[in-house]
């Protein structure tokens, strides 16, 4: 059964993409929440320098030494960025933009000078080719398993265990660094450990999907998840589900339209982000529009209650507490005035007798709640 599953090339490709997405979104969630998500872009590019240096020292183009070298390069990127920021002459975004192009350029130059005959090139690092992961396999239990599947499965497991073990410390360090430091949690060390895992994930992913898709998976699914929920646990779940769905749908569309598989997977993460941006239950544009609409309706009901209360039982009640007065004095259009009156009647705030509008006890109480604080302040 295992052999039949791993002989399915389509499943291999989608599974590798899903694992890259899950591993990346796990660490990316904390980067997004810390406002440091663009460090993943810097790491994704600068690891080229570490990969080339490790190859020059060991002549190994893959394996644990490559992961270690790339991870250290990622930390070097962050260290140099923080060093520039500490001068107070360069802002963080500018420092990132200064550091990673230098390391990336040095890596490309070293490839051209010393590794031009080795399968390390800029196109592979940036774009990868997830469609070919099934060609590089290991035999396990009689089944040919892609190396990328093993490496990304391992990184997903490592990232998940790290977050599980240090969840409380990471959560506190992310949302309240000062308190975490006061409690002795060493938030700086945790942050660098997180970046170390981010770098390791990047080098494990680049051969299959490239740096571009890696960066998309680090940033976009957690950002979409953030629009869907305010709970950290659910952010991990939603980020993983978005990554899985982006891999499956992206692959199917790429095959259908004969386009780049990695590119289409990245596009699908953007599609899910757009959907979350539009239809998120709390922070989506539709939800915000509905909130504003409800607030406007509430304000209109309050305005109507106060208007009727101010003229209640007075000599001008017959003139002021009618629908026509709402149009003339409150500058409401006919349709709006009618909607407000109907809504207030439905909420049992007012009664309508012919053209005259009168407050119910509930409407009168609402008006008093609004007016009494103002009257108290005036006195």
UniProtKB/TrEMBL annotation:
GO terms under cellular component: ATP-binding cassette (ABC) transporter complex
Gene3D superfamilies: ABC transporter involved in vitamin B12 uptake, BtuC
Keywords linked to the UniProt accession: Cell membrane, Membrane, Transmembrane, Transmembrane helix, Transport
TM regions (residue ranges): 12-32, 39-58, 64-85, 94-115, 148-167, 179-197, 203-228, 235-254, 260-280
Membrane topology: Multi-pass membrane protein
InterPro entries linked: ABC_BtuC-like, ABC_TroCD
GO terms of biological process kind: response to zinc ion; transmembrane transport
Classification via PANTHER family: ABC-TRANSPORTER METAL-BINDING PROTEIN, METAL TRANSPORT SYSTEM MEMBRANE PROTEIN CT_070-RELATED
Name assigned to this protein: Zinc ABC transporter permease
């Amino acid at each position: 059964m295992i052999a039949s599953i791993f002989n399915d090339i389509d499943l291999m490709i989608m599974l590798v993409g899903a694992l890259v997405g899950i591993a990346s979104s796990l660490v990316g969630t904390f980067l997004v929440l810390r406002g440091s998500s663009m460090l993943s872009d810097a790491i994704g590019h600068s690891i080229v320098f570490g990969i080339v240096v490790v190859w020059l020292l060991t002549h190994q183009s893959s394996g644990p030494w490559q992961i270690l070298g790339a991870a250290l390069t990622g930390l070097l990127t962050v260290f140099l960025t923080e060093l520039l920021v500490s001068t107070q002459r360069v802002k963080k975004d500018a420092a990132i933009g200064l550091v990673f192009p230098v390391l990336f350029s040095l890596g490309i130059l070293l490839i051209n000078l010393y590794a031009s005959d080795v399968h390390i090139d800029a196109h592979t690092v940036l774009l990868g080719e997830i469609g070919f992961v099934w060609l590089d396999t290991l035999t396990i239990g009689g089944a040919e398993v892609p190396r990328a599947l093993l490496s990304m499965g391992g990184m997903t497991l490592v990232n998940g265990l790290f977050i599980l073990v240090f969840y409380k410390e990471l959560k506190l360090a992310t949302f309240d660094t000062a308190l975490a430091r006061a409690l002795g949690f060493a938030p700086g060390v945790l942050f660098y450990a997180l970046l170390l895992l981010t770098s390791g994930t990047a080098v494990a992913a680049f051969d299959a999907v490239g740096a571009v898709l890696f960066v998309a998976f680090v940033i976009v699914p957690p950002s979409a998840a953030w629009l869907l929920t305010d709970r950290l646990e659910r952010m991990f779940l939603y980020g993983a589900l978005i990554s899985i769905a982006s891999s499956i749908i992206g692959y199917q569309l790429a095959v259908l339209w004969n386009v780049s598989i990695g590119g289409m997977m990245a596009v699908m993460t953007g599609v899910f982000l757009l959907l979350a941006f539009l239809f998120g239950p709390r922070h989506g544009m539709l939800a915000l529009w509905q909130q504003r609409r409800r607030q406007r309706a509430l304000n209109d009901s309050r305005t109507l209650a106060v208007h009727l209360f101010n003229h209640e039982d007075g000599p001008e009640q017959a003139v002021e507490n009618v629908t026509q007065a709402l149009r003339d004095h409150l500058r409401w259009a006919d349709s709006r005035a009618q909607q407000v009156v109907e809504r207030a009647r439905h909420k049992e705030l007012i009664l309508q007798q012919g053209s005259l509008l009168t407050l119910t006890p509930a409407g009168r109480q609402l008006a008093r709640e609004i007016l009494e604080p103002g009257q108290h302040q005036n006195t």
